[in-house]
TrEMBL record:
Name of the protein: Glycerophosphodiester phosphodiesterase
Superkingdom classification of source: Bacteria
Species this protein is from: Hymenobacter ruricola
Organismal lineage: Bacteria, Pseudomonadati, Bacteroidota, Cytophagia, Cytophagales
Gene3D superfamilies, alphabetized: Phosphatidylinositol (PI) phosphodiesterase
InterPro entries in the record: GP_PDE_dom, PLC-like_Pdiesterase_TIM-brl
Amino acid sequence: MVSACIEVHGHRGCRGLRPENTLPAFLHAVALGVDVVELDVVISADRQVVVSHEPWLNPLICLDPNGQPFSSNEAQRHNLYQLPYAAIRRCDCGQLRHPSFPEQVVQPAYKPLLREVLTSVEAAAARLGRPAMRYSVEVKSSPEGDHRFHPAPAEFLALVLAELTAADVFSRTSLLSFDARILRLAHQQPQLATCLLVEDQFPWAHSICQLGFVPTTFGPHYLTATPGAVAALRTDFPGLRLVPWTVNEHNDMQRLLALRVDGITTDYPDRFRSLLSSVL
């Protein structure tokens, strides 16, 4: 029996269907019925919290501030941490279809501020009569990137938390990161859920023990979610939520449902919602 409480997390909104981490992607995800909007944040030169996966312009999906394409060799020259938000906003990141997502509907779009996303999603959910939306906000940081592509962890986290507090979504947000430094700071905040993201580290218990505390959620790469790994996690860390990423194919979704995960993060929330409708 599949639990009716399993969550649909819309990865970067719905990257398989709309340009990633843009307002069209988030609003479409809400319309599709996601339970959680997942997004990534970086910091601009003028200390604005910008929704973007990379702390630079990705040439696969973005044009430069002059509306021109550029090569991968030039990508890190467009360092968002060195650009004011006004310049970042001039860069279109919606008219180039990501080559890995042929179903993606292209349209003009820019990298929005976190506050703009939260305001827009909250309004859209209210119009649709949806329950209060929840958010998974991934802080894109690393020790190598400190002061080069982003502020040091304390400042980075403070800027993000200020936006969550101002939007009154603090208690409905989970703070995600691969960077244990960010999560350790976030753990000091009452009512803030945390999620440790891991890619290829195994066994999972080692990653959690290295973190130094048990987060609210564990987010492994979906290929590492084997029956044995899930069973060990449930035994060693009862109550820890399990939400693998990024699950896009029907067979993988079915396999993870059978493992009784608490949710999945997907670029195609429409596919997962359809699967859930057929098995519940």
